[in-house]
Amino acid sequence: MGSANPLCAQDLGNITKANPFEIHGNASATIGYYNTNSFNSSRRPFSYSILMAPTLSVYGVQMPLNFTFTEGSKNVKNPFAQFGINPYYKWVKGYLGWTNMTWSPGTLNGKTFLGAGIEINPSIIRIGAFYGRMNRPLRENLVGINSQIPQYKRRGWGLKFGLGKEHNYVDFIWLHGKDDPNSIPAPKDTLNQIDYTPAENAVVGIKSHQAFGKKKNVVWDADASVSAWTRDINSELLDIGDGFGSGFIRKAIPPRFSTSYAWTAHTSFTYRAENFSLGFDYSRIQPEYRSMGLDYLLNDQQRITLTQTGVSKNKKVNLSFSQYYQHDDLNKRKAVKTNRTGINATINYAASQKFGIVFSFNNFNMFQSAGLKPLNDSTKVFQIQNTVVVAPRYTIVNTKMVHNMYVSMSYSRLEDLNKVTVKYSKNSTLNTNIGYSLTLNNIFFTFSPSLNILNTKTPSLKLFSVGPTFAFNKNFAKGKYSANLALTFINTQQNGTWANKTVTNTIGFNWNINKSHALKFNNSIMRSKYLVSAHEYKGTITYVYTFNYVVKSKAGK
């Protein structure tokens, strides 16, 4: 997969001072092993992967690369490999190979494609474009456990034009995608013939970001998009006449009987002061809204969110609050309407460098109201879930050692207000983790024992588990070698009977041979007993090579 992280671009005026060529990064090769006597395991006993992440620089033009090579899954004969580069220079950035781009939440947002793209941002001009394969063709396979649903080859392209700079800009976006109906044989399964048909999509969108004030502490964001989605490009065309705009619509995406139109809108407002902030967020995604520039989007949702944060003058108390309301059935066509509300409050109190405590409260409500049909009291959903977290900590630091003591207690309770279903769904969970960590600075040694207690109650099950963990970490030869060991014991009781015992042993060893070479070894052994004994062995051996090669310029020699 290709990706890019912004580095320092080279100014054309100083290009002669830049090094003609540089390459730095790392490469790794990993071998993994796995063994278990579990009857339903699907993992291979051996696996391998090769990862490379070099960054090339030619006279200051950065070209980050990423290369991944694995054996793939069982139903893939050839190994899986993806390659992409994202070179950039000043205000020009390129996307080549396997890559992704993000323009707005409703149009193009992180969708991986195989192709090419470019973004140009000189002065106040903002231009973007891309073209590529968005889905690879997959033939229908109805035989065996590794069945495959059909997928047509999909190609797409898009344009973006905007005005503005980093803190204030407006972008206009166009995206078009279309499946190739001849890329795979027609599905034979009746359901696949209905559900998986060659589609076409056109999306137009706008995105705005505006920051105000000398400190840019008032921010308003907004975006909206309209999508036309044809579910089956083989369906009959619609006659839309010769009115205004009809010619453009026919060229953009010919309207068919299977074409639907939907829109989405989002806006947010944030105000940040020295000791507090306020936020408002609103989003609406119409039913059936889809875009080929998105991997996934939950539609038929409207949500309003409020946020508030604050910090005391002495910086010892940090407050964070949020509230939201969300519901579906925007077109009022569902049998019932589902509503969700949530409240979150977090208080972080740092009394001193030694002592601090965190309080957190979460409330989540889900309830239904009547839609096209009246609600039945016996099936109506009305649930309330509350979660409380308390986590104090105490730390002692000196030149010789560091002591860290902590407790984390979490209590969660689900209340069902439906008198019929409450006897099946009501539950509560109390989880407590008590830990201590001792670090000896002089010998680079850390010892971290902890105890975890879990108590869960449901109408049909009472589960109690308790067990300690002992973790050790030691560095040798000024960090050239490091070793870690963790032992975990868990004893579980079900409905008053001790039913399961699990022991897990994890060992790791790292050897930094020199600045360029390193070896890493990790191994885990798990044994449990519940009716029958079970075991699991897994581990990895990794070699890492770090490189940095520079051809210096004459001016820099």
Overall description:
With 557 residues, this protein is mostly beta strands. Helix content is 3%, strand content 62%. It has helices spanning 190-195, 246-252, 422-425; strands at 21-36, 46-58, 61-70, 80-85, 88-89, 92-102, 109-120, 125-135, 153-164, 168-180, 200-212, 218-230, 259-272, 276-285, 301-311, 317-327, 336-350, 355-370, 382-397, 401-416, 427-440, 445-457, 462-476, 481-494, 497-512, 517-530, 532-551. Strand 24 and strand 25 (497-512) form a beta hairpin. The radius of gyration is 29 Å and the shape is globular.
Order of helices and strands: EEEEEEEEEEHEEHEEEEEEEEHEEEEEEE
Low-confidence stretches: 1-13, 73-80
Please compute the radius of gyration using only Cα atoms: 29 Å
Shape descriptor reads globular
Helix content: under 10%
Tell how many strands the DSSP assignment holds: 27
Main β-sheet: number of strands, strand sense, barrel status?
A: 26 strands, antiparallel, barrel
Keywords:
single chain, 557 residues, mainly beta, 26-stranded antiparallel beta barrel, 3 helices, disordered N terminus
In short:
The protein contains 3 helices and 27 strands.
Question: Any chance you could write out the topology, listing elements then pairs?
Answer:
Blueprint: E1 21-36, E2 46-58, E3 61-70, E4 80-85, E5 88-89, E6 92-102, E7 109-120, E8 125-135, E9 153-164, E10 168-180, H1 190-195, E11 200-212, E12 218-230, H2 246-252, E13 259-272, E14 276-285, E15 301-311, E16 317-327, E17 336-350, E18 355-370, E19 382-397, E20 401-416, H3 422-425, E21 427-440, E22 445-457, E23 462-476, E24 481-494, E25 497-512, E26 517-530, E27 532-551
Antiparallel strand pairs: 1-2, 1-27, 2-3, 3-4, 4-6, 5-6, 6-7, 7-8, 8-9, 9-10, 10-11, 11-12, 12-13, 13-14, 14-15, 15-16, 16-17, 17-18, 18-19, 19-20, 20-21, 21-22, 22-23, 23-24, 24-25, 25-26, 26-27
